[in-house]
Amino acid sequence: DPAGELQAIFTLSNAHPNLSWLAIECLGSHPRAFDTLRHRLEQDSDEPFVQAMITNVLGTFRRSEALPVLYRIASAPKGDPRLRSAAVNAIARSSDPEAIRMLVAIAADSLAPSTLRVIAAVALPAELSSDARIAIRQALRAERLAPEVTLALQRVLARTGDHEAITQLLHLIQSNSGVKAINVIDAIAELKSADITPLLVRISQNALAPAGVRLAAVEALLQIDSQELLPLLNENLRASAPPLRMQAHAILTRLLPHDPRLSTPLSDRSAPLALRLQALAHVVTYTPDSPILTTIVTTANEHPQVRMAAAVALINSAHPDAVVSLVAMLRPGEQA
Description:
single chain, mainly alpha, 20 helices, 64% helix, flat
């Protein structure tokens, strides 16, 4: 009986916290362990990291009976920060309307840590009751907020279609630069509204805007219409700055994972090593029979890390040229 075994370990007076943690990991997911875990959490007798483990497991059950103790932990002013975050995440996994009310209360709580408020806000669904929207709106207007909380709360309202929140987000894009602007653009992109396309196009083509902001605008545009606006990404795929180039390839990977341009950096020795390895992974996934793998392995002056990664790929795929290529690799100075 998993529940009985778990309870037996909990009742051991000399049980080490690590033993309790391991027992929860092994037995906690069993349906019959739910009540044991909930009662244990209610007792508040374990180390914070053990309680966090119990909290995470209870969240997987998605049962409303656990919500009261989870909310008590999440809203405890002097509670362990990581434990409180775990409790909010566990609450967020429930589809019970009471869980939504709890998340709104945490997101709107002026005394809660900013990180906790953001976690709660991000977890809120697009469809909220009028009372929930009023509570979020009042939280935005009634106090001086940390920028990340302001953005998170405005994002909640924008997802519900609140025009005022959308307008405020658009204003934030134009009044900020750097990381803040990128975060706002990300929030706007989540709406997937064609109405914001003109503004994003202007940002993407604004030579005075930071390169990262322009690329964020391009990504947002591609999320709205990935095919029509794909040429906007081309410049960044060839960017001289390695971070921009890698970010552009990451965007293309998310949007069009089969695009052949994702494998291009593999044959470009001037490309950043990380990007070449990323391109190699793309080749292995989508075109494992490509002759470029054999070429890389048998080229003596190829980068050792790229060469070894290609060799491993050939071996794992049982490629017919794997043995010949590896033998050639063992001959220093030989080049195909």
